[in-house]
Amino acid sequence: MLLARGARDRMIGVFDSGLGGLSVLAAIARALPRADLVYLADTAHLPYGDKDDAFIRSRVMRIGTHLVDRGCAVVVVACNTATAAAVAAFRETFPHLPVVGVEPGIKPAAAASRSGRIAVLATPSTARSQRLASLIQQHAGAVQVDVEPCPGWASRVETLHLDDPTFVEDARRHLAPLLAAGVDQIVLGCTHYAFLCPVLEPIVANQAVLVEVADAVARQCVRLAGTAALGQGRLTLLSSAQPERLHAALPALGLTWLDKRLTGAARQVLA
Ligand code: DGL
User: Fold this and answer.
1) Which contiguous run of DSSP H or E holds residue 220?
2) Of 56, 69, 192, 206, which one's alpha carbon is 20 to 30 angstroms from that of 199?
3) Residues 247 and 237: beta-carbon distance below 8 Å
4) Would the CA dihedral through 29, 43, 149, 176 be positive or negative?
5) pTM (two decimals)
6) What would the DSSP string read from start to end of 135-163?
7) pLDDT at residue 157 above 90?
8) Per-residue model confidence as pLDDT tens digits over 93-143
């Protein structure tokens, strides 16, 4: 659907490799009820977390450019992996475009820690990134940070079988040594992991708190939105593969309430 030019230029574009960025989209939708939102899932190329930086950068450029061409006035990279590998290059290409990235909440977690030890759960790509190393150096202070790569977790979310017993076992295996070491804040360093909270919370209960940044990202969008805050509260869903899966995933992720904003069926783009 082509929108009139005025409406086109007031949209907020949000993207991720797949479903994970919906956790950020939901926070933005709550904070900006009248904004017209476009969500693009790069389902054809997920997971990003086991790809190299050059590949991730090429996808971010392609998707970001597509969203700008559709008339997005603000672009949200709702993916820690893509932010770490490519947000700097994307900002260089579009110096006047407000671009919001998503980075692990090291700063709030370090500030809240009583034990002086926190952990970040992230994709293998984010875990080895220079950007995460710099974030830790800048914001952790004297707090010790354990970086825990969690291969396969984003793909687990994509299956929507979140409480599969083999996953629960895998999650315990990753978390038990961190809890035993005294970690009291566990940063979810991948937007997909927000949907794993129902599995992770009982494992860490009474020992550690899960730290998410979706609401902070939404607040940043509110600051940057300008007239993009003042649309008609619509939501367009786009995907580079299997667009029907995107809408079908909303109930399993507790996001049925987004249905009322939908402009129509999810459509395939950038195939
Ligand atoms: N949701 C993304 C992130 O925040 C990427 C997950 C993936 O595709 O590996 O890192």
Assistant:
1) helix 214-225
2) 56
3) yes
4) positive
5) 0.96
6) HHHHH-TT-EEEEEE-TTHHHHHHHT-TT
7) yes
8) 999 999 999 999 999 999 999 999 999 999 999 999 999 999 999 999 999
Query: In the prediction, which pLDDT does 214 show?
Result: 98
Centre of ligand 1 to C-alpha 223, Å, is: 25
The owner of tokens 């914001």 is: 139
Task: Tell me the mean pLDDT in the region 11-33.
Answer: 98
Give the angle 49-175-77 at the CA atoms, nearest 5°: 30
Q: Is 59 in the pocket of ligand 1 (CB under 6 A)?
A: no
- Side chain identity at residue 90, one-letter code: F
Q: Which of 73, 99, 97 is CA-nearest to residue 87?
A: 99
Containing 39, the helix (H) or strand (E) segment is: strand 36-41
203 CA to centre of ligand 1 in angstroms: 22
Angle between helices 130-139 and 80-93 in degrees, nearest 10: 100
> Hey, what domains does the chain have and what are their CATH numbers?
5-102+215-268 (3.40.50.1860), 106-212 (3.40.50.1860)
Beta strand ranges found along 175-266 (DSSP E): 185-188, 209-211, 235-239
3-state helix, strand, coil in the chain (%, to 5): 50, 15, 30
Ligand 1 site, residue 189, Cβ cutoff 6 A = no
Binding site membership for substrate: which residues? 16-17, 48-49, 80-81, 191-192
> What strand order describes the sheet that includes 11-16?
99-100, 72-77, 11-16, 36-41, 235-239, 267-268
